[in-house]
Structure formats: structure tokens, C-alpha cells
Amino acid sequence: MNVVDTAKSLRRAMLDRALPQRFVFHHVPKCGGTSVGRALRKRYLLSQATVVPESSFRAFEAFTGRSDRERMLVDVLDLREQMLLYLMYEDVRCISLHVRFSEVAYDRFRERYKFITILRDPAARFLSHYNWSFDKPNAHARIEEPLEEFLTTDRARQMGASYSEFFSGLPSDADFGSAEAIERAVLNLKKFSAVGRLDDLDGFRAQLRDRLGIRVRIGHENRGGKGRSSLTLSDLAPETKAEIQRICAPDIAVYERAFAGGMDVRA
Predict the structure, then answer these.
(1) What is the dihedral of CA 139, 142, 145, 146, to 10 degrees?
(2) What's the sign of the alpha-carbon dihedral 216, 255, 250, 232?
(3) What's the rounded Cα separation, in Å, for the pair 7 and 32?
(4) Percent helix, strand and coil across the chain, each rounded to 5?
(5) Distances (CA, A) of 177 to 129, 151, 227
(6) Which among 42, 250, 228 is positioned nearest to 164, based on CA atoms?
(7) What's the alpha-carbon Rg for the chain, to the nearest Å?
(8) Which of 138, 198, 204, 255 has the smallest count of CB within 10 Å of its CB?
(9) InterPro entries this protein is in (predicted)?
(10) Helix (H/G/I), strand (E/B), else coil: 226
(11) Between the CA of residue 2 and those of 10, 12, 125, 216, what are the distances in Å?
(12) C-beta of residue 253 within 8 angstroms of C-beta of residue 182
């Protein structure tokens, strides 16, 4: 065994002692995941990785030469799933990224890795996502329309089905508002070892402690948003709020079923 191989072996042994639990944190946009992801990565400084949304989109854009931005926002998730698999094959212990649930990753790594996520009230998540993305000229995921106009777009309907998109395991051209997508998302979330709620961070920390053996302190990153819109649900006219609830019906179905009677997650 040469010096490099010896060093790699020693590092692996050190990580097995210091950070034995491997996991993937599925970061759904605007669910408090920036705070959670950074807390976990600080705890796992010796072996952690993320995939930056902007950089991965720009890499996808450069490689494909495409300019159909709205569709690329969906298709880039395939690249991020491939990057997730790469990091798992590299045996990175803490992986935190905007990535859909991967049947391939779960089937191949479920004995070594645990899967975790945190969710948020769907209507609040939707509006926070809009606020964050509105009128950011150079951002890959920018939203250009005023809220009432945006609510009529395909992008709005996609955002209202973010949970079924992220957790159903269906291909990117699926109907994520369908009963099948919702059912699959709920079933796949039951494969997770920890599914938290943004309004109960103490409960999520307890899940991480009890089910993964990880103790973390979670701060508040991105709080209040840095977008040019700062709307809250209480600011909206009743009919606008009702339309957001209607658009978010798929996510509401996943959210309510996920937490009804307590999430029966995988230990």
C-alpha cells in the first residue's frame, strides 16, 4: 500500500469513528433548509457536500446549450440527482442539496445512508418562494410577473406541487398534481428517518438526535427573504389567498397526510 492509499485508509477509519452516520438532507426550497443544511454541514465539516442551485443550473445551461429557462428549471433536477449519486459513491457522510427523492439512490444506499427532510405549511412556502425569486434579474430561477399574474402560470402550478415533485420519484415530465404523484410522495416520505416541520424545529432536532444520533443547533439563515417582494399571507386579498390554496392543493394533500397522526418514518 502506497502513501496515498494509506492516508485514504486512515481518513476513512477516522471518519468511521467520528462521523459514522451517513445521510442525505433533501432541501425543498423555502422550508428552512438553508439553516438546517448549514447546521448539519458544520457538524460534519470533515465530510460534507452540497450542490449550489445557481452553479448547477449554469453548468447544465453551458453543457446543453439550451435557453428554454422554464423547462430547464425542471430538467436540471436530473443533473442534481446524478451529482447526489456521485457524492454517495464517494462516501460523503453529510449531503445537503435541492434534489428529488431518488429511487436509485434509495435502493442502492439505504443500508448505509439515512434520508431526512423538513417541510413547511404549503401556502406559506409558496409565497416565500415567490418573494425570494421575484424580480432578481440575473438569477436562474427568477420570477418576473406580479403575484396575481404569476398565479396564472405553469410555473405557479409547478411550485404548488413541489412536495409531490420532490418526493414522488416520478420522472420530470409527470403530472405532479395527480393522485398518483401525491400517493407516491406520501409513501416515499415514510422511507425517511426524519421528516420535520419548520414550525417545530425542536421536534426535528429531537428526531435527528434519536434516529440519527446527531445533535445540532439550527440558526436562522435567509430569514425574511432577500427578494424584492415581502408579501405575507395576511397581506393578501381573500380571493388571492384562496387561489394560492387552490394551486397548492397537491402540496397540502402531501403535507396533511405526512403528518396526520404522526409520520411513521423509517427508523
Answers:
(1) -90
(2) negative
(3) 37
(4) 55, 10, 35
(5) 18, 15, 27
(6) 250
(7) 19
(8) 138
(9) P-loop_NTPase, Sulfotransferase
(10) coil
(11) 12, 15, 52, 37
(12) yes
**CA–CA separation, 163 and 255 (whole Å):** 8
**What would the grid cell of residue 163 be?**
412536495
Per-residue pLDDT in tens (0 to 9) along the chain, 267 residues: 687 778 778 888 888 788 899 999 999 999 999 999 999 999 999 999 999 999 999 999 999 999 999 999 999 999 999 999 999 999 999 999 999 999 999 999 999 999 999 999 999 999 999 999 999 988 999 999 999 999 999 999 999 999 999 999 999 989 999 999 999 999 999 999 999 999 999 999 999 999 999 999 998 766 544 566 789 999 999 999 999 999 999 999 999 999 986 555 665
**Can you give the pTM of this predicted structure?**
0.92
DSSP state of 212: I
CATH homologous superfamily of 20-259 equals P-loop containing nucleotide triphosphate hydrolases (3.40.50.300)
Type of residue found at 45: L
Cβ burial, residue 98 (10 Å; 0-12/13-18/19+) = buried
| Run of H or E residues at 118 | strand 113-119
Q: Which three cell numbers stand for residue 52?
A: 449550489
CB 162 within 8 A of CB 29: yes
Cell of 86: 456521485
Q: Which residue has the cell 418576473?
A: 144
